[in-house]
Design a protein that fits this description.
With 474 residues, the chain is an alpha/beta fold. The protein contains 15 helices and 16 strands. The chain folds into two domains: 4-205, 3-Layer(aba) Sandwich (Rossmann fold), CATH 3.40.50; 218-469, UDP-N-acetylmuramoyl-L-alanine:D-glutamate ligase (3-Layer(aba) Sandwich). It binds ligand LP7C6HRI and potassium ion. Residues 55, 120-124, 151-154, 156 line the site of potassium ion (K).
């Protein structure tokens, strides 16, 4: 099962791996033709009704594979209004090769003929709202005809994610969908087949540019992109400052750092963009927890728990207490990680251990994490939280799904890059689900590093690289 956002991401990842969409369209069209061949007698009349997007493009390709039938292909609209280059190219190929094709410029002139099979390639995943004209008239004609109706990807008018369709949606007998089935096809009273269109497994497995493109709400009010609240510092000062700044660079609206009074000055002096809130102590202890939980809860903050906290007993106890009380979203890093296997929490956690921390938590103790994904996945399933295990190839898993992020440079072994990652993860967690946030963050962090020379990389340099690294088509 795959939803349309993820499908679009995987499609873009495939293109980045060298398998562009036009190639996938060739496979889709071929699969459509095979599905037609399965339901059509050798002398059947086939009418293909194509829309102006890539759903129509799939059908233009299919036309070339249906030479032996009595096939007509109708385009709803003028060829100049076809919305994508690849669909237009496939239409032009039909024109040049002399296929029987027609542009339907006015829905009143639509005539399906008397076909045995109608291919519905009007609209796929690009639909918004109810069918408009001329598609609405064409859908009515298909539903009224005696022909077998075969829909491409999804019956036109039906939302592939929800299965909802307006009254005028196409009532398909058969659906041929691509790569994986879609949530909205489940409840349909149609025969659904899934066609493999040659998307490499790597396009799903490895985080790629397509994963960056999940849209942030463009109308978001200040605050919608999230407040990140870093609970860190004590023995160390740089770590929480890096995490907070990274969160800002990755799109958080505000970043707060709660830190012991003793280290307030240095942390506040690192960056004027950070808001630092001191508590009266040398290090985090149980007394501070109620106040921190209250702040984070009141503001629906995404918390980063761990950077620079140190491993004092009272701090360990405070982290336990924090996770017991808090029920929001938390990125758990560094010394705070050791607490996670010991406690029950209602919070949503993304845990970001390096190799050593993973082993200390009870996960596999291995050098190359990407060779041990099954063990890490099983560990995450046991833990009940998303794990982002950091290494040359980062492994991200929620216990059921696993992805690998391969970006980065050898220079990233320098101190502080993990703190930057924790901040990026928190910012992304404000607008994405935990598994997506944990998958995209190391990809961005690694891409940020790739903009600098490997030798002598500083974690603070990564901060400057983050915004550019988050652009899909840089
Ligand atoms: N990896 C993949 O996802 C692949 C998908 N393929 C096929 O491509 C379509 C999706 O194509 P897209 O161009 O994004 O959208 P559509 O063809 O569905 O439609 C866009 C088109 O429709 C107009 N429109 C939108 N809503 C309405 C409406 N309610 N009424 C009328 N017209 C509407 C809009 O303006 C656009 O012009 C996918 O389903 C697959 O079939 C690839 O071929 C293979 C890879
Ligand atoms: K369709």
């Amino acid at each position: 099962m795959i939803d349309t956002d993820r499908m679009a991401a995987v499609d873009e990842n495939a293109a980045a791996l060298g398998v562009p969409r036009k190639q996938l369209m060739e496979s889709s069209g071929n699969a459509v033709a095979s599905a037609v061949q399965d339901v059509a007698e050798p002398d059947a009349r086939v009418t293909i009704v194509a829309g102006r997007g890539n759903n129509g493009g799939d059908a233009f390709v299919a036309t070339r594979f249906l030479d032996t039938y009595d096939t007509r292909t109708l385009l709803l609209g003028r060829a100049e209004t076809v919305t994508t280059g690849i669909a237009r190219e496939n239409w032009a190929a039909l024109e040049q090769a002399g296929y029987e094709i027609d542009e339907v410029r006015d829905s009143r002139n639509l005539d399906l003929g008397n076909p045995d099979v109608v291919v519905d390639a009007m609209l796929g995943t690009g639909i918004t709202g109810e069918l408009r004209e001329p598609e609405a008239t064409a859908a009515r004609a298909m539903n009224d005809s005696d022909a077998t109706v075969l829909s491409v990807d999804v019956p036109s008018g039906v939302d592939a994610d929800t299965g909802k369709g307006g009254a005028g949606a196409v009532d398909a007998d058969h659906v041929v969908t691509f790569h994986d089935t879609k949530p909205g096809l489940d409840a349909l009273d149609a025969d659904v087949r899934v066609a493999d269109i040659g998307i490499p497994r790597a396009a799903e497995r490895f985080v790629g540019p397509g994963d960056l493109t999940v849209e942030r709400d463009p109308h978001g009010e200040k605050g919608d992109a999230g407040r990140v609240f870093v609970v860190g510092g004590g023995p160390y000062t740089g770590a929480p400052a890096l995490a907070g700044q990274a969160a800002l660079r990755a799109g958080a609206d505000l970043a707060f750092v709660a830190a012991p009074e003793r280290v307030f000055e240095p942390i506040a002096s690192y960056a004027e963009d950070l808001i630092v809130q001191p508590y009266d102590a040398d290090r985090l202890g149980p007394d501070h927890v109620d106040g921190l939980v209250e702040t984070a809860t009141d503001h629906d903050d995404v918390v980063v728990l761990g950077p620079g906290l140190g491993s004092a007993d009272e701090t360990h106890t405070a982290v336990e207490e924090f996770l017991r009380q808090f029920d929001g979203r938390v990125v758990v890093d560094a010394d705070a990680l050791a607490v996670v296997p010991e406690i029950e929490t209602d919070a949503t956690l993304v845990c970001t251990p390096n190799r050593k921390e993973l082993a200390a938590m009870g996960g596999p103790d291995v050098d190359d994490l990407s060779e041990h994904v099954d063990e890490i996945e099983a560990f995450a399933a046991d833990l009940g939280h998303v794990v982002l295990a950091k290494a040359k190839d980062d492994v991200i898993t929620d216990g059921e799904r696993t992805r690998i992020s391969r970006t980065g440079t050898p220079g990233m072994t320098v101190g502080g890059t993990g703190d930057v990652l924790a901040g990026i993860t928190a910012a992304l967690l404000a607008t994405r689900n935990p598994f997506e946030a944990a998958s995209v963050a190391p990809y961005v962090n690694g891409r940020a590093a790739e903009q600098f020379s490997e030798s002598g990389l500083l974690a603070s340099e990564l901060l400057d690289g983050i915004p550019h690294a988050m652009e899909a088509d840089r």
